[in-house]
Amino acid sequence: MKQKIVIKLHMDCEKCRNKALKTAAEVKGVVSVALEGDDKDRVCVTGDNIDTVCLANMLKKKFNDVTILSVEEVKNKTAEEKKKEEDKKKEEEKKKMMEACHDVLYHSCNTCKSSNCHGYHHK
User: How is domain 2-73 classified at the CATH fold level?
Assistant: First the structure.
């Protein structure tokens, strides 16, 4: 089972953050580790069949304050969900392109307020 675990730690400096990432990465099943939060005080760990207690205990050996904030299953997106996301992105790109074309073709010149000028006659 693929899962995402978020653990809050008390980390004051960059050295502590690197130590936390390195420690979390050593746990069996961990695929990726990252820092989250405004203060970068949360370690986000993703992987397969991670022993949450083992992870917390390893971090507790090196950090005083360890709090497990969430443990959730990460579901893989189905082909249909991926296709919907791609279609949505394509539709958004198409809309942006249409708006850009509309702006170029139909907006008037800011200097002379003419809809035919487009700023070409002003230097």
Answer: Alpha-Beta Plaits (3.30.70)
